[in-house]
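Protein: VOC family protein
Species: Mesobacillus maritimus
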Amino acid sequence: MNIIVTSLFVEDQEKALAFYTETLGFIKKEDVPAGEYRWITLVSPNAQDGTELLLEPNVHPAAKEYQKKIFSDGIPATMFGVEDIDKEYNRLVEKGVRFTMKPTNMGHFSIAVFDDTCGNLIQIIQK
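Structure follows.
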């Protein structure tokens, strides 16, 4: 069994697509109509056949409540790995990304957290 797709609730699919591709550097893999919304998946440029990230509209009341609650409690919705956290932090800050936690050493790894502008906190980690 393999993980092929993982979901991330977003407030606005078009805004999320722009942020995740233009700012973070993910590549759009799928973008097809799905009722009144779209099935939009992204992949890492380094693993284009790897796990896809689905930008899932948060239209269900439970999804909206979940997203708001974990955001307000400071809990990241997901985590992305980076090779050099300081370099990635500086690159994203230059692009206007707002961090809620600067790179912090946690022993065997370092983490940082930023606001994706789409209703989520995202953690990056360097192992």
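Remarks: The radius of gyration is 15 Å.
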